[in-house]
Amino acid sequence: MTAAEAPSARLAALGIELPPPTTPAGSYVPAAMIGGLVSTSGQIPVKDGALMATGIVGAEISQEEATACARQCAITAIAAAASVVGGVDNLAGVAEITGYVASAPGFTAQPQVLNGASDLCVEVFGDSGRHIRSAVGVAVLPLGVPVEVAIRFIPA
Fold first, then answer.
1. What is the DSSP pairing of strand 132-138 with strand 31-34?
2. Counting C-beta atoms within 10 Å of the first and last residue's C-beta, which end of the chain has fewer, N or C?
3. Which architecture characterizes domain 3-155 according to CATH?
4. How many Å apart are CA 49 and CA 3, to the nearest integer?
5. Is the pTM of this model over 0.85?
């Protein structure tokens, strides 16, 4: 991998600075090495220390807003995983994303919402960012957020 292909360089080119890992709200850790992968806890859309949005997608939150939230969840997941392996350049790619979307009755675009996280992973890790994924609609999420995302990364 060339320096320009490194995840840190790709993040810089996207204008993204990784935040510090979020402080857990309970008895868990943001990320851990499990079975050869770096797995994150569910990440909610926090930016600059505040929730980006609250509400139900398809009722109070638009699909576009939810997609932006999913992208931010992926950024915080990358930050959490990078803290486990000593930096983002020690992550080689993404194995799996599981995403939850607080969905209004009849809202069926959960996969499109989760593209916010998936597309970011491909932007940061190239073809190694392609992954398996589940996009699940739920009634409500912690703190009323519209999206929660957990990612399993492949360490370098």
1. unpaired
2. N
3. 2-Layer Sandwich (3.30)
4. 30
5. yes
